[in-house]
Amino acid sequence: MFTRRNAAIAVAILSSSPALLQSAGAADKPTDPQIAHIAYTAGVIDINAAKQAQKKAKSKDVKAFAQDMLRDHEAVNKQALALVKKLNVTPEDNDTSKALSKQASDKLAELDKLSGAAFDKAYVANEVAYHKQVNGALETQLIPSAGNAELKSLLQTGLKIFQGHQQHAEHVAAELK
């Protein structure tokens, strides 16, 4: 069963990058099954980025931030799958989740070419931008598109949690300068 905090974190992965805002216009509102797939995809993306940072980062603050993201999003994916099962929703692959996966793969390859302080700065800058996009997508696409009242409520709570992730990333970025 979801705790309020874990539920909030779970919906925080209902995130995106510019792909969500580009591929899901007002006329193309994602359905709950599509939102579920976007959520899982976004969680995997942040898990993979955090794992890369755990291996490559030099700054202890960057490593700690990556560990927080890894911990939160691994727990979130477990909770998100439980919610999907509870709601009897089958996640549906869609253009947004496909675009997210492609962009993430490209970004991981780009970051993999960096090392030391250059990697740390690029990783954290990407996390700041990612979380800004997530918050915007939650506000403008995912929350308004959610049909299930429980899902909508969780998305609203998740927005608050993800705003905290953004602030944390911005703080780490400021410390690296």
Describe the structure.
This protein is mostly helical. It is built from seven helices and no strands. α3 packs antiparallel against α4 and α4 packs antiparallel against α7.
The overall pLDDT average reads 81
Task: Identify low-pLDDT runs.
Answer: 1-26
Give the amount of beta strand, in percent: under 5%
Return the string of H and E elements: HHHHHHH
Treating each run of at least 4 consecutive H or I residues as one helix, how many helices? 7
Distance between the termini: 42 Å
Number of beta-strand segments:
0
Q: Which radius of gyration do the C-alpha atoms yield?
A: 15 Å
Could you describe the largest sheet, including whether it forms a barrel? none
Structural class: mainly alpha
What does the overall shape look like? Answer: elongated
What helical percentage do the residues reach?
Answer: over 70%
